[in-house]
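Entry for the shared binder. Reason: the reviewer on the internal report wants the predicted structure included alongside the sequence.
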Amino acid sequence: MKVLFAGPSLHRDIVDGRLSAAPEIVCRGPAAQGDVAAAVLDGATAIGLVDGRYEDVAAPWHKEILFALSEGAAVYGGGSLGALRAAECAPFGMIGVGEVFDRYMNGELVDDSAVAQLHAPAELGYLPLTEALVNVEATIGRLSAQKLIDSALAGALRTAARGLFFKRLTYEAVVARAGAPAETLDLIADHYVDLKQADARALVAAMQAREDIRDPRPDWRLARPTAWRKQLERLVEARRTRTP
């Protein structure tokens, strides 16, 4: 079984909780703390982490990713929070995919604010309500490279975007804050770059190409402090008592 945690980054591809292009992969929405470990207990051979929850509940923690790797499950990360976790856990075998991951690895990106965005719940298909900074900057970069805007306007748009809290980061807000001409929004719409989606789709392709089996366990051992043991016990108990 292959399990993917994705929401707004792949909202165009998720239909009724399944990936239209990869129905064999179980899509469980953005991951909260404990969800990756639960997938391991459910028998997942490969786990893809794209989107995560981080404000209303605790975000997926590194320990459960290491737990998955220690059990021989392949763990992929890319596109959003998964790219950050992949950069952090790459020395232990987590597989990073895409440009956002590369930028976290080389230190160009350093925290989750670059990929954070508000989105609607599962019932509304995880529709993004704000834009991620990595997408905004990629779109500005395309407009600049194609000489559709000059360097001064590109700089003003980047500065405006970086100064906005992620819950307020929309293209309308960026253009207004930068004092850009209103027609800039039309240029953005025509040349929009969805970097998170591109990376997430590459991650799905990597998961599809992988054989549906677990690897041999790594040669390092997972430490099991009290907090982790209790968390794992809670997950095991939840699986035992949940309704079939």
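Summary line for the report: The chain has ten helices and seven strands.
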